[in-house]
Amino acid sequence: MILLHTLRELGLAKRARGRPALPRQQPEEGQFEVVGEQAEEGQFEEEEEVEVEVEEHFEEGQPEEEVHLAAASSGVGIRNGEDVPRGGPLDRGLLKSFDTHVAAAIWNREERGTLRLHSHSRHLSKWRVKSRRVQEKINNSGLGPLCSNLTYPYCNAVLVSAFVERWHPETNTFHFKFGEMGMTLDDTEQLLGLSVIGKAVHTEEEYRDPVTLLKDCLGVSETDARKALNGGKSVALSWLKKNFTTVSKTDSVQRVDYCARAYLLFVLGCTLFIDKSGGKVDVSLLSLLSNLDEVDTYGWGTGCLAYLYRQLGTASRKGVKQLCGYTTLLEAWIHEHFPTLQQPQNPNYSEELPRAHRWLPRREASNVSVSHYRRMLDDLRADQVIFDPYKDRRGDVRPIAFYTGPIRGMSVVEPYLPDRVLRQFGLVQIIPGDPIAPARVETGDKKYNVVYTWTDANWTSWEYHVVPEVKRVRTKADVPWECHPDYAQWLSRYSHFTVSPDAGATEVNIDGSATDGLKLAAITQEVDKVFAEGLSPYSMREALRHISSILRPTIRGEPRTPRTTEGATYGRRTDAT
What we know:
Blueprint: H1 2-9, E1 32-33, H2 64-74, E2 77-79, E3 82-84, H3 102-107, E4 116-117, H4 121-124, H5 132-139, H6 157-164, E5 167-168, E6 173-176, E7 179-181, H7 185-192, H8 210-218, H9 222-229, E8 234-236, H10 237-244, H11 253-270, E9 280-282, H12 300-315, E10 322-323, H13 327-337, H14 370-379, H15 391-394, E11 405-409, E12 412-416, E13 440-444, E14 447-451, H16 456-460, H17 487-494, H18 516-532, H19 537-556, E15 572-573
Helix pairs in contact: 5-11, 6-14, 7-12, 8-9, 10-11, 18-19
């Protein structure tokens, strides 16, 4: 009551409506323009007023600023004089393919349901290598972790489906109300135990004739090769197991090599490069296994991540019903970062094992739906997330995790953008830079075809393409979710972080440009949260910190301006210097 009385004295007791849709403003000299591919020439120049039909949603006489704010809450936005479809970001400059995204369909109450997750784990468990000579080849391949019990025998399709609803391929991240998160090279290395440094996972020989690849790498006849391919480019996993399991002590070194390649091809088809072919594997992967002494020189973890990125982008389309790729990586990542959704832990886990072994896979409960997890993720707060779960295990983040640019897994090239998830490295989250623009993109309800430019030189010289040191500002030890003061303002304009159409007003950080009513709503929400959490010291400290940040511009009587680190750029400079 004392707090509310104080707020009334400050003149803040107005009725709040919706979440803040922060208007574009001309940046002052020396400030940085916030872009993400969305900034175009003249973007921040004065714009003509746009008339919008609002009678259905708003009260007569409602102030113009609050009309815009209420539009954001109701799902009606403004873009170039047009209404933005319900639930979409206020500015489409970043999430350009939102119209065909599954989240857009959900806002229109078109439920997709649970995705079908493709998995070949049942095949993987049926082939155990018994030959010592073959096993030595496998141990030297760098793919050993995949040959153990790392792959989950089943994944929680309901949980994974809820996360896919938040994946946006333009940024290759999941979007939440507190910001973006995603699987990084650091996550991949820690969870799978695979190298993320090395040659890109591709070779020019991958385009060779598949019949020739089978003849040269596995020693089969042309007749048998054509029969196994059956006019396609893939062979059945069962065919590999049938023909290359047995190795005798008298077999030649060449036969041992054939069997080792066949087994590694089998493993890749069951794990990193799962497709929807139905128990088959693309023969082009043999081009990476032709020289068994060089298999460990590839960055297999990076190739896995690129391939999974692409599969998630495709599955984010509203008409797609299935997901390929190595979902063990995705589900293990979820359990590490989101403790409220965790699976049971493996009592036999030790730190010498890849981190994915830490979790015991569990089938989804029959009474839990995608909408259940969707609401949980809509309501998720930053303090409920473990941004850097590996800091005690691996110490400092390896520099490769900060590489920024395209990554590749065979024919798939995808952008890797760590500046969007800096809190996962123990750093302050800044407003991210522009995403990598694709050379060509074609989207639809059931497709996301995108082409990114690739050069080997860019990857081999990754040390010259990392997030600059000046942007790597460490967070306070007790505040792992710290972000740049204007990050929430940027997020509220360019992101879509509430998937459920029945969700209430979304909590965001409020700055000086918000109405007084919205400030009161945010403060009241903080007070309610304190009581709901039992007046714990932690919740009281965080509430006071948030309330202080909300009131500070009002008390000082001055607008809040970006606080930049000297020399750092958070987008593109708008002045001439």
